[in-house]
Amino acid sequence: MGNDNTPxxxxxxxxxxxxQIASDTAYLSETVAALQAITQGSTGDIAGQAKxxxxxxxxxxxxxxxxxxxxxxxxxxxDLKGPATDYKMGxxxxxxxxxxxxxxxxxxxxxxxxxxxxxxxxxxxxxxxxANAAKK
Length: 136
What we know:
Layout (H helix, E strand, L loop, with lengths): L10 H13 L2 H12 L8 H36 L3 H16 L7 H11 L5 H12 L1
């Protein structure tokens, strides 16, 4: 059973969540105000020190959570964005242009496969293997 209130996972949604984390600084202002409200006692004011330490720990925890949320949202954004195929194809063209300057044309197909592997793209050999596996 689906939840109709679940937001659609889009790049805009993720960027909005990151912006929301970045702009949510009210807790910082509240903590600073609370720290200023702590009255200084004697040099050995353990209660005041404990309050200040607890507030500092709360801020650290909140910031750690925010960092983890941003990392999660970034990964989700990268997953939505998908691979940078155009960029990789541009790299491949540059590599192939470099290879095409070689005098040994017979080596060009091997150089192409090496370039494809370097870019993490499927090679001709990969396609042949996949086709042969599908036939079995």
